C-alpha cells in the first residue's frame, strides 16, 4: 500500500510556483495556501502531506527525514550543504546570485561584504583570492552599502528592480538559481516507487531550461 509522502514546502514565493507545477503534473493540490497559520496541510487525494517551512529550513527537515522530499532554492542548498539527494531542477523561482555594489565602488584595505549567504560568499571570495570580512544579515541586504555597513553585498537579483530603486549595480554574477526537488536518502530508497512516479509526472511539465540533475 502506498504511504503518504511528506513534502517540505517553502511558504513564500516558491509555494505558488511549485503548486502550479504539481497541478500541471496532475496532482490535486491547493493552488493557494489559505490564509491562516496551519503548518501541516494533508492532501490525501495526492497521497501527500505538506509541511510549510521557512525556505532555509527545508533541507534540514529533509536531511533528518521528517520530510521525505522538499522544494528549495539552489541558493539555500549551496549555503546549507545538507546531506540530501537533489533529484530535479524544477526551473522555477529563477534568479541569480551576484556581487553588488555602489556604482563608484573601489577596492578597500578591509573590504566588508554583507549577505544572507555567508558560506557561499566566503567560498566565492576565497576562490577569487580576495580577503573580505563577511557580515551575515537576514534581509534587506541592499541597505548595507547604502548606510556604510559593507562595501558590497552578495544577494539575489531577479528583475533588478531592487538594485535600480536603491542606486546599486551588479558587479558579477556568481551563479544562476532555480528551485530543486530534494529527497531524504533513506526515503528515496524506502519510497522509491512513489518518488520516482512524482519525478516522472513532473519531468514533462518542467519549464524548458530546467534539466535533470
Ligand atoms: N527576487 C527573487 N526572485 C525569484 N526567486 C527568488 C527571489 N529571491 C529569492 N528567490 C528564491 O526564492 C527562495 C525563497 O525566497 P523567499 O523570499 O520566499 O524566502 P526568504 O526571504 O528566504 O524567506 P522568508 O521571507 O520566509 O524569511 C530563495 O531561496 C531563492 O531561491
Ligand atoms: O531583482 P528583484 O526582482 O528586485 O529581486 C531581488 C530582491 O528579492 C529578494 O528579496 P526579498 O523579496 O526576498 O526580500 P528580503 O530578502 O529583503 O527580505 C532579494 O534579496 C532582493 O532584495
UniProtKB/TrEMBL annotation:
Note the superkingdom of the native organism. Bacteria
Q: Point out the coiled-coil segments of this chain.
A: none
* Compartment list: Cytoplasm
UniProt keywords (A-Z) are: Amino-acid biosynthesis, ATP-binding, Cytoplasm, Glycosyltransferase, Histidine biosynthesis, Nucleotide-binding, Transferase
Catalytic reaction(s) noted: 1-(5-phospho-beta-D-ribosyl)-ATP + diphosphate = 5-phospho-alpha-D-ribose 1-diphosphate + ATP
Q: Where is the ATP phosphoribosyltransferase catalytic domain?
A: 54-203
Note the InterPro entries from the entry: ATP_PRibTrfase_cat, ATP_PRibTrfase_HisG, ATP_PRibTrfase_HisG_short
Q: Does the keyword field hold Nucleotidyltransferase?
A: no
Pathway note = Amino-acid biosynthesis; L-histidine biosynthesis; L-histidine from 5-phospho-alpha-D-ribose 1-diphosphate: step 1/9
Q: What is its EC number?
A: 2.4.2.17
* Classification via PANTHER family: ATP PHOSPHORIBOSYLTRANSFERASE, ATP PHOSPHORIBOSYLTRANSFERASE ATP-PRTASE
Relate the assembly described in the record.
Heteromultimer composed of HisG and HisZ subunits.
Role noted for this protein: Catalyzes the condensation of ATP and 5-phosphoribose 1-diphosphate to form N'-(5'-phosphoribosyl)-ATP (PR-ATP). Has a crucial role in the pathway because the rate of histidine biosynthesis seems to be controlled primarily by regulation of HisG enzymatic activity.
Against NCBIfam families, the record matches this protein to: hisG
User: Which protein, by its recorded name, is this?
Assistant: ATP phosphoribosyltransferase
Amino acid at each position: 500500500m502506498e504511504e503518504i509522502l511528506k513534502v517540505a514546502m517553502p511558504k513564500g514565493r516558491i509555494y505558488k510556483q511549485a503548486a502550479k507545477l504539481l497541478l500541471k503534473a496532475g496532482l490535486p493540490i491547493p493552488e493557494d495556501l489559505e490564509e491562516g497559520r496551519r503548518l501541516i496541510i494533508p492532501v490525501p487525494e495526492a497521497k501527500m502531506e505538506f509541511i510549510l517551512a521557512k525556505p532555509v529550513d527545508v533541507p534540514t527537515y529533509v536531511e533528518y527525514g521528517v520530510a521525505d522530499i522538499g522544494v528549495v532554492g539552489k541558493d539555500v542548498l549551496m549555503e546549507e550543504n545538507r546531506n540530501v539527494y537533489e533529484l530535479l531542477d524544477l526551473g522555477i523561482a529563477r534568479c541569480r546570485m551576484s556581487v553588488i555594489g555602489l556604482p563608484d565602488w573601489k577596492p578597500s584595505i578591509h573590504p566588508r561584504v554583507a549577505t544572507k549567504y555567508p558560506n557561499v560568499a566566503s567560498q566565492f571570495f576565497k576562490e577569487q583570492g580576495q580577503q573580505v570580512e563577511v557580515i551575515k544579515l537576514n534581509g534587506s541586504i541592499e541597505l548595507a552599502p547604502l548606510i556604510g555597513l559593507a562595501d558590497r553585498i552578495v544577494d539575489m537579483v531577479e528583475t533588478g528592480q531592487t538594485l535600480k530603486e536603491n542606486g546599486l549595480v551588479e558587479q558579477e554574477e556568481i551563479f544562476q538559481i532555480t528551485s530543486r526537488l530534494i529527497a531524504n536518502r533513506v526515503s528515496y530508497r524506502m519510497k522509491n516507487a512513489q518518488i520516482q512516479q512524482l519525478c516522472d509526472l513532473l519531468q514533462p511539465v518542467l519549464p524548458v531550461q530546467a534539466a535533470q540533475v
